[in-house]
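If you are new to this repository, start here. Below is one unmodified record pulled from the training split, so you can see the exact layout before writing a loader.
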Amino acid sequence: MSIAMIPMILLSLFLLAKKFYPLIGEIPDQGKQKEYAAKTDLYHDKKFHNERDFRMLTGPRQKESLRTKPTSRIPVQKIENIERADADEMKITWLGHSSTLVQMGDKNILLDPVLGEYCSPVWLAMLKRFSDKALAVENVPDIDVVFISHDHYDHLDYETIKMIDHKVSHYVFPLGVDAILKGWGVDQHKMHPLGWWESIELEGIAYTLVPAQHSSFRNPMHAFATLWGGIYMKNDRHSLYFTGDCGYYDVFTRIYEFFGETEVMLADSAQYNDAWALTHMTPEQSVQAAKDAHAKWLMPIHWGAFKLSSHDWDEPPRRAIKAAQEQGVSLATPRIGQTVDYDDISSFNEHWWQIFD
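And here is the target side for that same chain:
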Protein backbone atom coordinates (compact mmCIF):
# COMPACT_ATOMS: atom_id res chain seq x y z
CA MET A 1 0.00 0.00 0.00
CA SER A 2 1.30 3.44 -0.89
CA ILE A 3 1.72 5.86 2.04
CA ALA A 4 -0.11 8.43 -0.07
CA MET A 5 -3.22 6.25 0.05
CA ILE A 6 -3.47 6.28 3.85
CA PRO A 7 -5.15 9.74 4.08
CA MET A 8 -7.66 8.64 1.42
CA ILE A 9 -8.47 5.47 3.36
CA LEU A 10 -8.84 7.39 6.63
CA LEU A 11 -11.10 9.94 4.93
CA SER A 12 -13.24 7.13 3.51
CA LEU A 13 -13.58 5.51 6.93
CA PHE A 14 -14.52 8.85 8.46
CA LEU A 15 -17.21 9.46 5.86
CA LEU A 16 -18.62 5.97 6.32
CA ALA A 17 -18.73 6.42 10.09
CA LYS A 18 -20.40 9.81 9.70
CA LYS A 19 -23.02 8.30 7.38
CA PHE A 20 -23.86 5.20 9.43
CA TYR A 21 -23.22 6.24 13.05
CA PRO A 22 -26.58 8.02 13.47
CA LEU A 23 -28.30 4.79 12.43
CA ILE A 24 -26.28 2.82 14.97
CA GLY A 25 -27.17 5.26 17.73
CA GLU A 26 -25.69 6.47 20.98
CA ILE A 27 -25.10 4.32 24.07
CA PRO A 28 -26.01 5.18 27.68
CA ASP A 29 -23.50 7.47 29.38
CA GLN A 30 -21.71 6.77 32.66
CA GLY A 31 -24.43 8.44 34.70
CA LYS A 32 -27.06 6.15 33.23
CA GLN A 33 -24.82 3.14 33.74
CA LYS A 34 -24.60 3.93 37.47
CA GLU A 35 -28.40 4.21 37.60
CA TYR A 36 -28.80 0.78 36.00
CA ALA A 37 -26.31 -0.83 38.39
CA ALA A 38 -28.22 0.64 41.36
CA LYS A 39 -31.56 -0.50 39.95
CA THR A 40 -30.81 -4.15 39.14
CA ASP A 41 -28.26 -6.84 39.93
CA LEU A 42 -28.55 -7.90 36.29
CA TYR A 43 -26.55 -4.85 35.20
CA HIS A 44 -22.79 -5.11 35.76
CA ASP A 45 -19.59 -4.84 33.74
CA LYS A 46 -21.36 -2.11 31.73
CA LYS A 47 -23.78 -4.73 30.41
CA PHE A 48 -27.29 -6.03 31.01
CA HIS A 49 -27.56 -9.76 31.63
CA ASN A 50 -30.29 -12.38 31.30
CA GLU A 51 -31.97 -14.01 34.28
CA ARG A 52 -30.52 -17.44 33.48
CA ASP A 53 -27.12 -18.61 32.30
CA PHE A 54 -26.91 -17.43 28.73
CA ARG A 55 -24.63 -17.63 25.75
CA MET A 56 -25.16 -16.27 22.28
CA LEU A 57 -23.87 -19.32 20.40
CA THR A 58 -25.12 -22.76 21.37
CA GLY A 59 -23.94 -24.96 18.52
CA PRO A 60 -23.24 -25.16 14.79
CA ARG A 61 -25.56 -23.31 12.44
CA GLN A 62 -28.18 -25.45 10.76
CA LYS A 63 -27.86 -26.17 7.06
CA GLU A 64 -29.35 -23.47 4.86
CA SER A 65 -32.73 -24.35 3.38
CA LEU A 66 -33.36 -23.80 -0.33
CA ARG A 67 -36.62 -22.03 0.61
CA THR A 68 -35.52 -19.31 3.01
CA LYS A 69 -37.40 -16.84 0.82
CA PRO A 70 -40.55 -17.26 -1.31
CA THR A 71 -40.21 -17.43 -5.08
CA SER A 72 -41.90 -14.03 -5.43
CA ARG A 73 -42.84 -11.15 -3.12
CA ILE A 74 -45.62 -12.01 -0.70
CA PRO A 75 -48.82 -10.11 -1.49
CA VAL A 76 -50.32 -8.39 1.52
CA GLN A 77 -53.48 -6.52 2.39
CA LYS A 78 -52.60 -2.90 1.69
CA ILE A 79 -53.68 -0.37 4.29
CA GLU A 80 -54.60 3.08 3.03
CA ASN A 81 -56.41 4.35 6.09
CA ILE A 82 -56.82 3.17 9.69
CA GLU A 83 -59.77 4.35 11.73
CA ARG A 84 -59.54 4.36 15.52
CA ALA A 85 -61.25 1.44 17.22
CA ASP A 86 -64.17 1.88 19.60
CA ALA A 87 -63.60 2.11 23.34
CA ASP A 88 -64.60 -1.53 23.99
CA GLU A 89 -62.75 -3.09 21.04
CA MET A 90 -59.33 -4.64 20.51
CA LYS A 91 -57.98 -4.93 16.99
CA ILE A 92 -54.61 -6.28 15.87
CA THR A 93 -52.95 -5.66 12.51
CA TRP A 94 -49.76 -7.64 11.88
CA LEU A 95 -47.47 -5.77 9.47
CA GLY A 96 -44.90 -8.52 8.93
CA HIS A 97 -41.99 -9.73 11.07
CA SER A 98 -42.68 -8.26 14.54
CA SER A 99 -44.18 -4.93 13.50
CA THR A 100 -47.79 -4.84 14.68
CA LEU A 101 -50.47 -2.21 15.25
CA VAL A 102 -52.55 -2.93 18.34
CA GLN A 103 -55.73 -0.92 18.78
CA MET A 104 -56.78 -1.32 22.39
CA GLY A 105 -59.90 0.71 22.92
CA ASP A 106 -59.48 3.97 21.06
CA LYS A 107 -55.68 3.98 21.43
CA ASN A 108 -53.22 3.11 18.67
CA ILE A 109 -50.13 1.20 19.87
CA LEU A 110 -47.38 0.40 17.38
CA LEU A 111 -44.98 -2.44 18.25
CA ASP A 112 -41.43 -2.58 16.88
CA PRO A 113 -42.13 -0.54 13.74
CA VAL A 114 -39.80 -1.42 10.86
CA LEU A 115 -41.57 -0.13 7.76
CA GLY A 116 -38.70 0.12 5.29
CA GLU A 117 -37.26 -2.29 2.74
CA TYR A 118 -34.25 -3.37 4.82
CA CYS A 119 -33.66 -4.44 8.44
CA SER A 120 -30.05 -3.30 8.38
CA PRO A 121 -28.07 -0.04 8.48
CA VAL A 122 -26.71 -1.00 5.05
CA TRP A 123 -28.75 -2.14 2.07
CA LEU A 124 -27.75 -5.78 1.84
CA ALA A 125 -29.73 -7.90 -0.60
CA MET A 126 -29.90 -10.76 1.92
CA LEU A 127 -31.68 -8.48 4.41
CA LYS A 128 -34.19 -6.99 1.98
CA ARG A 129 -37.89 -7.41 2.72
CA PHE A 130 -39.43 -10.26 0.72
CA SER A 131 -43.05 -9.27 1.34
CA ASP A 132 -44.84 -6.22 0.06
CA LYS A 133 -45.29 -3.44 2.61
CA ALA A 134 -48.76 -3.47 4.12
CA LEU A 135 -48.50 0.01 5.61
CA ALA A 136 -46.58 2.80 3.94
CA VAL A 137 -44.96 5.26 6.32
CA GLU A 138 -47.12 8.09 5.01
CA ASN A 139 -50.27 6.12 5.90
CA VAL A 140 -49.31 5.52 9.54
CA PRO A 141 -52.11 6.97 11.70
CA ASP A 142 -51.59 9.05 14.81
CA ILE A 143 -49.92 6.76 17.33
CA ASP A 144 -50.51 7.02 21.06
CA VAL A 145 -47.65 4.68 22.04
CA VAL A 146 -44.72 3.13 20.20
CA PHE A 147 -43.25 0.17 22.05
CA ILE A 148 -39.72 -0.94 21.19
CA SER A 149 -38.70 -4.33 22.55
CA HIS A 150 -34.94 -3.98 21.96
CA ASP A 151 -32.37 -2.27 19.81
CA HIS A 152 -31.74 -4.82 17.05
CA TYR A 153 -32.14 -3.42 13.56
CA ASP A 154 -35.13 -5.64 12.71
CA HIS A 155 -37.01 -4.06 15.65
CA LEU A 156 -35.73 -0.50 15.87
CA ASP A 157 -35.38 1.32 12.56
CA TYR A 158 -33.86 4.78 12.24
CA GLU A 159 -35.71 5.81 9.09
CA THR A 160 -39.08 4.65 10.39
CA ILE A 161 -38.70 6.50 13.70
CA LYS A 162 -37.54 9.69 11.97
CA MET A 163 -40.54 9.60 9.61
CA ILE A 164 -43.29 8.82 12.14
CA ASP A 165 -42.04 10.66 15.23
CA HIS A 166 -44.29 13.68 14.60
CA LYS A 167 -47.30 11.35 14.84
CA VAL A 168 -46.21 9.63 18.07
CA SER A 169 -47.32 10.81 21.54
CA HIS A 170 -45.30 8.40 23.70
CA TYR A 171 -42.49 5.84 23.46
CA VAL A 172 -42.21 2.94 25.92
CA PHE A 173 -39.06 0.79 25.84
CA PRO A 174 -36.41 -0.98 27.95
CA LEU A 175 -33.69 0.93 29.78
CA GLY A 176 -31.01 2.43 27.57
CA VAL A 177 -32.98 2.71 24.34
CA ASP A 178 -33.64 6.35 25.28
CA ALA A 179 -30.00 7.12 24.49
CA ILE A 180 -30.60 6.01 20.91
CA LEU A 181 -33.91 7.85 20.53
CA LYS A 182 -32.53 11.02 22.07
CA GLY A 183 -29.71 10.98 19.53
CA TRP A 184 -32.31 10.73 16.79
CA GLY A 185 -34.08 13.86 18.00
CA VAL A 186 -37.00 12.32 19.88
CA ASP A 187 -38.33 14.66 22.60
CA GLN A 188 -37.31 13.25 26.00
CA HIS A 189 -40.74 14.16 27.41
CA LYS A 190 -42.25 11.52 25.12
CA MET A 191 -39.89 8.78 26.32
CA HIS A 192 -40.66 6.27 29.10
CA PRO A 193 -37.77 3.85 29.79
CA LEU A 194 -38.67 0.87 31.99
CA GLY A 195 -36.86 -1.92 33.79
CA TRP A 196 -38.29 -5.43 34.00
CA TRP A 197 -41.63 -5.56 35.88
CA GLU A 198 -41.89 -1.77 35.91
CA SER A 199 -45.18 -0.31 34.70
CA ILE A 200 -46.57 2.94 33.41
CA GLU A 201 -50.19 3.89 32.77
CA LEU A 202 -50.91 6.07 29.77
CA GLU A 203 -54.47 7.16 29.03
CA GLY A 204 -56.18 4.16 30.57
CA ILE A 205 -53.76 1.41 29.48
CA ALA A 206 -51.17 -0.11 31.82
CA TYR A 207 -47.90 -1.10 30.13
CA THR A 208 -45.54 -3.45 32.00
CA LEU A 209 -42.10 -4.31 30.65
CA VAL A 210 -41.56 -8.02 31.25
CA PRO A 211 -38.35 -10.08 31.05
CA ALA A 212 -37.21 -11.84 27.93
CA GLN A 213 -34.21 -14.04 27.25
CA HIS A 214 -32.38 -12.28 24.46
CA SER A 215 -29.69 -9.65 23.83
CA SER A 216 -28.97 -6.18 22.51
CA PHE A 217 -26.30 -5.64 19.92
CA ARG A 218 -26.88 -2.53 17.84
CA ASN A 219 -23.38 -1.20 18.29
CA PRO A 220 -20.84 -4.01 17.76
CA MET A 221 -18.46 -2.25 20.16
CA HIS A 222 -21.07 -2.13 22.95
CA ALA A 223 -23.10 -5.34 23.05
CA PHE A 224 -25.72 -5.65 25.82
CA ALA A 225 -25.52 -1.89 26.52
CA THR A 226 -29.32 -1.57 26.50
CA LEU A 227 -32.02 -3.78 27.99
CA TRP A 228 -34.56 -5.92 26.09
CA GLY A 229 -38.00 -7.25 26.99
CA GLY A 230 -41.62 -7.90 26.14
CA ILE A 231 -44.67 -5.82 26.98
CA TYR A 232 -47.89 -6.73 28.75
CA MET A 233 -50.66 -4.22 28.14
CA LYS A 234 -54.07 -4.11 29.72
CA ASN A 235 -57.03 -1.77 29.97
CA ASP A 236 -60.33 -2.29 31.78
CA ARG A 237 -61.54 -4.71 29.09
CA HIS A 238 -58.68 -6.30 27.14
CA SER A 239 -55.16 -7.69 27.57
CA LEU A 240 -52.30 -8.47 25.19
CA TYR A 241 -48.80 -9.85 25.69
CA PHE A 242 -46.04 -9.25 23.13
CA THR A 243 -43.01 -11.38 23.94
CA GLY A 244 -40.47 -9.44 21.92
CA ASP A 245 -37.60 -11.67 20.86
CA CYS A 246 -37.29 -14.33 23.52
CA GLY A 247 -35.90 -17.79 24.08
CA TYR A 248 -38.09 -20.28 25.91
CA TYR A 249 -37.82 -20.36 29.72
CA ASP A 250 -39.99 -20.03 32.81
CA VAL A 251 -40.89 -16.36 32.31
CA PHE A 252 -44.16 -17.35 30.63
CA THR A 253 -45.38 -19.16 33.72
CA ARG A 254 -44.50 -16.10 35.78
CA ILE A 255 -46.43 -13.89 33.37
CA TYR A 256 -49.54 -15.91 34.19
CA GLU A 257 -48.82 -15.86 37.92
CA PHE A 258 -48.42 -12.08 37.82
CA PHE A 259 -51.19 -11.04 35.42
CA GLY A 260 -53.56 -13.99 35.14
CA GLU A 261 -55.03 -15.11 31.82
CA THR A 262 -54.09 -13.21 28.65
CA GLU A 263 -56.43 -12.74 25.71
CA VAL A 264 -53.83 -12.54 22.91
CA MET A 265 -50.16 -13.45 22.89
CA LEU A 266 -47.94 -12.23 20.04
CA ALA A 267 -45.02 -14.63 20.28
CA ASP A 268 -41.55 -14.82 18.78
CA SER A 269 -41.92 -17.99 16.69
CA ALA A 270 -39.28 -17.77 13.98
CA GLN A 271 -35.67 -16.99 13.03
CA TYR A 272 -34.69 -19.90 15.30
CA ASN A 273 -31.54 -21.94 14.78
CA ASP A 274 -29.52 -24.51 16.69
CA ALA A 275 -26.70 -21.99 16.67
CA TRP A 276 -28.67 -19.54 18.86
CA ALA A 277 -31.19 -21.78 20.59
CA LEU A 278 -31.41 -19.58 23.71
CA THR A 279 -32.38 -16.36 21.92
CA HIS A 280 -35.46 -17.36 19.87
CA MET A 281 -38.26 -19.87 20.28
CA THR A 282 -39.07 -22.64 17.88
CA PRO A 283 -42.75 -22.77 16.85
CA GLU A 284 -43.31 -25.65 19.26
CA GLN A 285 -41.79 -23.66 22.11
CA SER A 286 -43.95 -20.64 21.31
CA VAL A 287 -47.05 -22.84 21.53
CA GLN A 288 -45.86 -24.17 24.89
CA ALA A 289 -45.17 -20.59 25.99
CA ALA A 290 -48.77 -19.67 25.16
CA LYS A 291 -49.94 -22.57 27.31
CA ASP A 292 -47.64 -21.47 30.14
CA ALA A 293 -49.00 -17.92 29.94
CA HIS A 294 -52.62 -19.15 29.71
CA ALA A 295 -53.17 -17.14 26.53
CA LYS A 296 -56.58 -17.59 24.96
CA TRP A 297 -55.13 -16.96 21.50
CA LEU A 298 -51.64 -17.18 20.04
CA MET A 299 -50.45 -15.24 17.00
CA PRO A 300 -47.01 -16.42 15.79
CA ILE A 301 -44.89 -13.49 14.58
CA HIS A 302 -41.25 -12.66 13.71
CA TRP A 303 -41.61 -14.14 10.21
CA GLY A 304 -43.05 -13.23 6.81
CA ALA A 305 -40.79 -10.30 5.93
CA PHE A 306 -37.05 -10.84 6.44
CA LYS A 307 -34.68 -13.80 6.20
CA LEU A 308 -32.56 -13.92 9.34
CA SER A 309 -32.08 -17.68 9.77
CA SER A 310 -31.78 -20.83 7.69
CA HIS A 311 -35.24 -22.42 7.88
CA ASP A 312 -37.98 -22.40 5.21
CA TRP A 313 -39.67 -18.99 5.20
CA ASP A 314 -43.09 -20.59 5.82
CA GLU A 315 -41.93 -23.28 8.25
CA PRO A 316 -42.86 -21.29 11.40
CA PRO A 317 -46.65 -21.23 10.81
CA ARG A 318 -46.71 -24.82 9.55
CA ARG A 319 -44.95 -26.13 12.65
CA ALA A 320 -46.93 -23.85 14.97
CA ILE A 321 -50.25 -25.11 13.58
CA LYS A 322 -49.24 -28.73 14.08
CA ALA A 323 -48.06 -28.08 17.64
CA ALA A 324 -51.16 -26.04 18.49
CA GLN A 325 -53.43 -28.84 17.28
CA GLU A 326 -51.50 -31.37 19.35
CA GLN A 327 -51.47 -29.19 22.48
CA GLY A 328 -54.95 -27.68 22.24
CA VAL A 329 -53.86 -24.07 21.75
CA SER A 330 -56.01 -21.64 19.74
CA LEU A 331 -53.98 -20.13 16.91
CA ALA A 332 -54.68 -17.16 14.63
CA THR A 333 -52.80 -16.77 11.34
CA PRO A 334 -53.93 -13.54 9.64
CA ARG A 335 -52.46 -12.30 6.40
CA ILE A 336 -49.97 -9.48 6.64
CA GLY A 337 -52.04 -6.30 6.77
CA GLN A 338 -55.30 -7.93 7.84
CA THR A 339 -56.99 -6.32 10.81
CA VAL A 340 -58.10 -8.89 13.37
CA ASP A 341 -61.05 -7.90 15.52
CA TYR A 342 -60.61 -9.83 18.75
CA ASP A 343 -64.33 -10.58 18.87
CA ASP A 344 -63.91 -12.39 15.54
CA ILE A 345 -60.38 -13.77 15.96
CA SER A 346 -61.44 -17.40 15.46
CA SER A 347 -62.13 -16.71 11.77
CA PHE A 348 -58.52 -15.78 11.01
CA ASN A 349 -57.13 -19.26 10.36
CA GLU A 350 -56.37 -19.19 6.62
CA HIS A 351 -53.21 -21.03 5.54
CA TRP A 352 -52.48 -18.23 3.06
CA TRP A 353 -48.78 -19.10 2.60
CA GLN A 354 -49.75 -22.27 0.73
CA ILE A 355 -50.25 -20.26 -2.47
CA PHE A 356 -46.45 -20.46 -2.84
CA ASP A 357 -46.31 -24.27 -2.71
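Two things worth knowing about this chain: The longest strand covers residues 168-174. The chain has seven helices and 15 strands.
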